[in-house]
Each structure stands twice: as structure tokens, then as C-alpha cells.
Amino acid sequence: MKKNKDKSISLKELAKEWGIKMKIKREPTTPGEILKEEFLGPLNITQKRLADHLDCDIKVINRLVNGKTSVSAEMALKLAAAFNTTPEFWLNAQRAIDLYNSQKEIKKLPNPLLKVS
């Protein structure tokens, strides 16, 4: 494995060393897009109505739908209760976006501190 002077390795090199196939796939669907396309649209619910139901400001829902904010644990609980899903459903969608964005931004990861044999 090639090491740079700063003792960092690329994501690709690390994945190769660990035997992980790493590809940046298509961008995951955002929680806001899921909310809009799978819940609000089909159920004919407005952002205002959802905001009132969840006891939050309409700006919160609008920012979520437009991908301007992330799903918090609190919002995941509220959405799960309102749409009979799980909080993990919403948090996993957010996690997929966060990991995808980080994977695109991070050029190098540090070397492993320990080797697992």
C-alpha cells in the first residue's frame, strides 16, 4: 500500500487493503424526497398540514422537503409516529445521504491504528 508523507491513504487504497469494494453509487434518495413523493403526494397532505400535525413550523418541513436540512432524531420520531413507519427508516435515509456526501468530500483517510488478522 502506498503511503504519503502525511501518513494518510486514499479511501480507495484503504478499501482495497480491507477487501472492500467501494464505489460511489447513485446519490441516495433524500428523506425530504421520500417524504414528498411517498407520503405527502400520495396522501394529498400539504406541508402546512403536516407541520401543524407534527407541531412544528412549516419552515422545518419545507427545508426538509427541499433538502436544506437533515432529519433529526426528534423529527424521525415524529415522522415515524405520523406515517406509521419507524424512526430508523428516516434516520437510515439521512445516514445514507450523509455517508454519500462525506465519501465524495473526503479524499484521504488515516491509516488504521490496528490491523485485524
Can you tell me about this structure?
The chain has helices at 11-18, 31-43, 47-54, 58-65, 73-83, 87-105; strands at 8-10, 108-110. With 117 residues, it is mainly alpha-helical. It has a domain at 31-104: 434 Repressor (Amino-terminal Domain). The protein is elongated and about 50 Å long. It starts with 7 loop residues before the first strand and ends in a 7-residue tail after the last strand. The model has no long low-confidence stretch (mean pLDDT 88).
What keywords describe this structure?
117 residues; mainly alpha; two-stranded antiparallel ribbon; 5% strand; 2 strands; 434 Repressor (Amino-terminal Domain); 6 helices
CATH homologous superfamily title of one domain? lambda repressor-like DNA-binding domains
Number of helices: 6
The percentage helix is 55-70%
| Tally of DSSP β-strands | 2
Which architecture name of one domain does CATH use? Orthogonal Bundle
Secondary-structure-based class equals mainly alpha
